[in-house]
Write a structure and sequence with these properties.
alpha/beta; Alpha-Beta Plaits; eight-stranded mixed sheet; four-stranded antiparallel sheet; 15 helices
Length: about 375
């Protein structure tokens, strides 16, 4: 929507515009090119697709910006703004949009802890907090271990002295590069989902099946494995009937698996206190020639519990990682050290406990979008524009 004709610079200021963009860097570029250096960011929030699009689309950022008085701006320049510029970027003028001019950093004083203990004390010196980037990362809940790792990067001395938005960009690139450099294992046509009780393993399996049926247009089947432990199939059986997936309970009856007809295996929950259960499950998977073994973890669990799950999974020969309850994680940055060092290929991220909830294989995009809070992006824009 184009703004109405104006007769003075005063009329131009105060206009608010909405941008939907793919990244913080894209928003900075568009704001500067189309609204000028004096534009002020009022709010930033994450938005996503609806329905089945949410399975395959990455979240975007909605930015609300306000025009400020500037000698270099003119209403003619504003009138030339189209409704859509570039790809997937929309600029509109809403009737009423909330905004705040408060210093975003003042809103963050929570300790960076998964157990309620203060961990920020581990930062070496008070001088560190004189650095805007490091101080803000700590206040917004960045995992202490991740902060220390970033400080160990060879280019940290250059990053820390950059304007905040530039520093955030460099950190984003650094995390992305390190994630990309980790070794990735391919998946086979036989895939087992394993994990401790209560992590959302069966729900994750249902999301895999929905993805296979609706996105990959394949015909998967499921084998319910008991291994001497009761493994009820009521919920899974009903879901399979709805989506047209065949559920087997006997190993001898399973069909051959191939690319367009993969076989998924659902095992009972394995106790973290019993390594023997995990080893027994491994022997069963060896017998069934299952090479892809996906460890399912509840991302909202304490970091120590997550690493215990990974240690237990070594007894089973786990190859991949699926993260559930991602929307419930208060501090997603705790997952970065796990993803970069656990030697398991990240396979998917799941939101919600419902089988129709979000499921995405774009793990890196999800992690980046949740690593930097929306308010931190907003402050980054403001710092970049020297507001």
């Amino acid at each position: 929507m184009k703004p109405t004709h104006a007769t003075s610079q005063k009329d131009i200021s105060g206009k608010r515009y909405r941008l939907v963009v793919r990244s913080a860097e894209e928003a900075v570029r568009v704001i500067r090119e189309k609204l000028g250096d004096q534009a002020k960011v009022l709010s930033v929030r994450q938005v996503g697709g609806e329905g089945l699009k949410r399975f395959i689309s990455s979240p975007k950022l909605e930015v609300i910006a306000e025009m400020q008085p500037s000698e270099s701006s003119s209403h003619n320049e504003l009138e030339e703004l189209p409704d859509n510029i570039d790809n997937n970027i929309a600029i509109t003028q809403p009737n009423s949009l909330p905004g705040t001019n408060e210093d975003i950093s003042n809103n963050y004083s929570q300790p960076n802890s998964l157990t309620g203990k203060e961990e920020n004390a581990g930062i070496e010196t008070a001088d560190d907090f004189n650095n805007e980037t490091l101080s803000l990362l700590s206040k917004t809940g960045f995992d202490h271990g991740l902060i220390k790792e970033i400080q160990s990067w060879s280019n940290w001395e250059k990053i820390k002295d950059k304007p905040l938005a530039d520093a955030l960009k460099e950190i984003t690139i650094g995390l992305s590069d390190r994630y990309g450099s980790t070794e990735k294992s391919p998946t086979s046509h036989r895939i087992a989902l394993v994990g401790s009780p209560g992590v959302g393993k069966t729900t994750t399996l249902c999301k895999f099946l929905a993805h296979e049926v609706f996105m990959n247009k394949s015909s998967p089947s499921v084998l319910k494995v008991e291994n001497g432990v009761p493994n009820p199939d009521d919920a899974l059986r009903i879901f399979c009937e709805v989506v047209g997936v065949t559920l087997y309970r006997e190993k001898a009856r399973i069909p051959d698996s191939k690319e367009d007809s993969p076989l998924y295996l659902d095992l009972p929950g394995l106790s973290l206190k019993s390594p023997e259960d995990w080893s027994h499950a491994s022997a069963t998977l060896d017998e069934l020639d299952v090479s892809t073994r996906v460890l399912v973890i509840n991302g909202a669990y304490d970091r120590e519990i997550l690493f215990k799950n990974i240690q237990a999974a070594k007894h089973l020969g786990a190859t991949h990682l699926a993260i559930t309850h991602f929307d419930e994680i208060a501090n997603s940055t705790k997952l970065w050290p796990l993803l970069l060092r656990c030697d398991l290929t990240p396979l998917c991220i799941c939101n919600g406990q419902n089988v129709t909830g979000d499921f995405t294989t774009s793990v890196l995009n999800q992690m980046i979008s949740r690593t930097f809070p929306e308010e931190l992006y907003a402050k980054g824009f403001s710092s970049y524009q020297r507001l």
